[in-house]
Design brief:
Strand order of the largest sheet: 1-8-7-6-5-4-3-2
EC number: 5.1.3.1
Radius of gyration: 16 Å
Pfam families: Ribul_P_3_epim
Distance between the termini: 25 Å
Bound molecules: D-xylitol-5-phosphate, zinc ion
Function: Catalyzes the reversible epimerization of D-ribulose 5-phosphate to D-xylulose 5-phosphate.
CATH topology: TIM Barrel
CATH class: Alpha Beta
Order of helices and strands: EHEHEHEHEEHEHEHH
Largest sheet: 8 strands, parallel
Binding site for substrate: 12, 70, 146-149, 177-179, 199-200
Binding site for a divalent metal cation: 37, 39, 70, 177
Oligomer: single chain
CATH architecture: Alpha-Beta Barrel
Strand content: 15-25%
Number of helices: 8
CATH superfamily: Aldolase class I
Number of strands: 8
Shape: globular
Helix content: 25-40%
Structural class: alpha/beta
């Protein structure tokens, strides 16, 4: 992975057909997805359950771009090696998920992955300032994690600008996760985000048999930013 600040669209397969992940991943990549975002939930840190390492390893066989694994789990540390072995390019852990985020981020890089740190809407930007030398990405949650299709929380946009300012010239991505669509994407892009996760806004109205709908949805997000 080379670093650049151009806008990248990362569809979340949380909104895909759960009986057809391989074809869904191939469809979104063929239709212009830059990264593939995988939402791992444990029913404890967040009130929903999704995928473990074997499922993520199965997804890897279909991902040709970047596999971006968002861990909404606590504890995190016992599972880092398993998600790295499953083929994650980036592993993101939540700053709220445990008392030792510094150690967690070191372990992610130690496992050979890029390290991301995510902040819930209720967590201030400053929570990640001591971690700047340990991270390759900040994921600013613009919904409370756990479910796709929630309403974008506008008060998080100011936090994106603060983090962008703090990052300066460091090669750290800012990812936005939750409620991204053509009405909200321009707000976060203007504030300095470069990776836009979108679940419902990419998959809505389409199937693997009508993949051009995914392409149009991705393009609509890109066009909203120009
Ligand atoms: C929420 C997840 C998101 C979610 C985004 O907990 O981390 O990645 O799938 O879905 P939309 O784009 O529908 O808000
Ligand atoms: Zn996510």
């Amino acid at each position: 992975m080379t670093f650049d600040r151009s806008i990248k669209i990362a569809p979340s397969i949380l909104s895909a057909d759960f009986a057809n992940f391989g074809a869904e991943i191939e469809a979104i990549e063929a239709q212009g997805a830059d990264w593939v975002h995988i939402d791992v939930m444990d029913g404890h840190f967040v009130p929903n359950l999704t995928f473990g390492p074997p499922a993520v390893a199965a997804f890897r066989k279909h991902v040709k771009t970047v596999m971006d694994v968002h861990l909404m789990i606590a504890p995190v540390d016992p599972y880092i090696d398993a998600f790295a072995k499953a083929g994650a390019d980036i592993i993101t852990a939540h700053v709220e998920a445990g008392p030792h985020i510094h150690r967690t981020l070191q372990a992610i890089r130690g496992a050979g992955c890029k390290a991301g740190v995510a902040l819930n809407p209720g967590t201030p930007a400053e929570a990640i300032y001591p971690l700047m030398d340990l991270i390759d990405m900040v994921c600013v949650m613009t919904v409370n994690p756990g479910f796709g299709g929630q309403k974008f929380i506008h008060s998080c946009v100011e936090k994106v600008a603060d983090i962008r300012n703090k990052i300066g010239d460091r090669p750290i991505h800012i990812e936005i996760d939750g409620g991204v669509d053509p009405t909200t994407a321009p707000l976060v892009a203007a504030a300095g985000a470069d990776v836009l996760v979108a679940g419902s806004a990419v998959f809505k109205g389409g199937t693997v048999n009508t993949p051009d709908v995914y392409g149009a949805n991705i393009q609509a997000i890109r066009d909203s930013i120009k």
